[in-house]
Amino acid sequence: MTKYKYNSFKEIDERLKILGLQKEIDKENIKWNLNRSKNYLCPTNIVGGFGGFLQTLILTFITKKLFKKFSKKSAKHKTVNV
After folding, report:
1. Which of 24, 63, 79, 82 has a CA 20 to 30 Å removed from the CA of 73?
2. pTM of the model as a whole
3. Could you list the residue range(s) of the whole structural domain that residue 25 is in?
């Protein structure tokens, strides 16, 4: 903390106003960060983030299965006569 030398009550009042405004700004920053954290931890956002990963995983699985299924069918239809 910085020590100040005041020459008048007016300077003290100005400093108190500044400190009061800084206190309000800090309170608002805390509220804003708290709300941002709440929104980030909201179940829909968590599931949404996980859902994107889950969708990609499921889509990859289905694509591999379909590819294997169609590659087996096309291998059955190809007959080689020697």
Report:
1. 82
2. 0.49
3. 9-77
CB-based contact 45:39 (threshold 8 Å): yes
Q: What is the DSSP letter of 41?
A: T
Query: Do residues 39 and 48 touch, judged by C-beta distance below 8 A?
Result: no
Tell me the per-residue pLDDT of 8-27, one tens digit each, with 9 for 90 and over: 999 999 999 999 999 999 99
| Tokens 């708290």, residue located | 34
| Residue 58 placed within a domain | yes
Q: Domains in the chain: how many in total? A: 1
Q: How far apart are CA 66 and CA 68, in angstroms?
A: 5
